[in-house]
Amino acid sequence: MEKWKSKITKQELTAGVEAGEGIVVSGNRKGQLFALDQATGEQKWTAKLSGAILSPSLIQSGRVITIANDGTVFAHDAATGQQVWAYKLPNVQFSLRGQPAPVRLDERTVLIGSANAYVYALDIISGVPRFQRRVAISEGRSDIQRLVDVVGDPVVSGQYLVTTSFQGQVTVTDLATQRVVWSEDASSTNSAEVADDKVFVATTDGKLNAYNLATGELVWQNEELLNRKLSNPVMLGQNLVVGDLDGVLHLINPASGKLIGRAKTSGEVRSLRVIDNQLYVATRKGALTIWQNR
C-alpha cells in the first residue's frame, strides 16, 4: 500500500532514506541533502555537503548526521538544516565508491564505518571521537585486491557490533570488551541484518548467508539469486526481504533460507529500510516507495 510519492530531484537519489523526528531525509550525488515532511512529503529544508551523498543519514537527538563521499561526517540541526559540526575521516589512497550510513550506538554516540576498515564512534552533540576499532583485514597483494572498505552500515544488536566489508569479513565485535567475537570471510558491500540470533548477509556475488550471531556458524546459504546485484536484506514482519537489479523484492523464510514470494517495484533496488513496520524502497531511478506489511 503506497502512502505518498515525491519527486525531489532530477538527480538520482544516491543516498537511500532515513525517517525520524517528523522528517524524511535523502540526498544525491551532487551533495544536496533534502529534508521532507514525513506526513505529507513536502520539502522542509536542503543543505549542500562537500561531496556526493551515497548513504542514508541518521536522525537522532535533534541532529541529522550524514557522511559525504570525501570522508567528511556532517551534523545538521533537524529542525532548521543548519550545520552544527563536521569531522574528517582519515584519507585512503584507494576506496570503493560507497559509504556506510552513520549508525546509532546510544543517545550520545554515532558509529561511522570507513574505507580503512575501521569503525569510529563520535559524540553526536559535539562531533568529538570517542573510540576506534579495526573490523576487517585484507589478504590481497595488489592495491585493488587490498581494498577492504566497510561499505555496508555497521549494525548494533545488544552488546554486539556486526560489520561487513568488501573482500574482507563478516565480523562481530563485543562492544563491552571491544574484542572480536568471530570473523568469517565473505565479501559484501551491504549492511547485514540481525534478527532471531542470526546475522543475514547478501554477498557481492549474490549469495544470501545466515550466521549464528553468537558463534559465527553458517546456519544456511541461499544461491538462487546469484549475480542479481542484491540489496541489503531486511526483516519485514516475519519475513526476510531483499531487492535486486530488476526491481524485484524477494521474500525469504529467515529460518530456512527458502524463497516464499516476490513483489515488483520500479527500477534497480538501491536500498531497503524498515521504519515502524513500513518498508522504504529507494531505486536507482530516484523513486521512493513505501510498502506496508499486510
Beta fraction? over 45%
In this structure, how is the largest beta sheet organized?
4 strands, antiparallel
- Name the quaternary structure: single chain
**What is the string of SSEs from the N terminus onward?**
EEEEEEEEEEEEEEEEEEEEEEEEEEE
Description:
- 0% of the residues lie in helices and 46% in strands.
- With 294 residues, the chain is mainly beta.
- The chain has a domain at 1-88: Lipocalin (Beta Barrel), CATH 2.40.128.
- Strands 1-2-3-4 form a four-stranded antiparallel beta sheet, with no helix packed on it.
- A hairpin with a 4-residue loop joins strand 10 and strand 11.
- The protein is globular.
- It starts with 17 loop residues before the first strand and ends with a strand.
List the helices and strands and how they pair.
Elements: E1 18-20, E2 23-27, E3 32-37, E4 43-48, E5 58-60, E6 63-67, E7 72-77, E8 83-88, E9 103-106, E10 109-113, E11 118-123, E12 129-134, E13 155-157, E14 160-163, E15 169-174, E16 179-185, E17 193-195, E18 198-202, E19 208-212, E20 218-222, E21 234-236, E22 239-243, E23 248-252, E24 259-264, E25 269-275, E26 278-283, E27 288-292
Antiparallel strand pairs: 1-2, 2-3, 3-4, 5-6, 6-7, 7-8, 9-10, 10-11, 11-12, 13-14, 14-15, 15-16, 17-18, 18-19, 19-20, 21-22, 22-23, 23-24, 25-26, 26-27
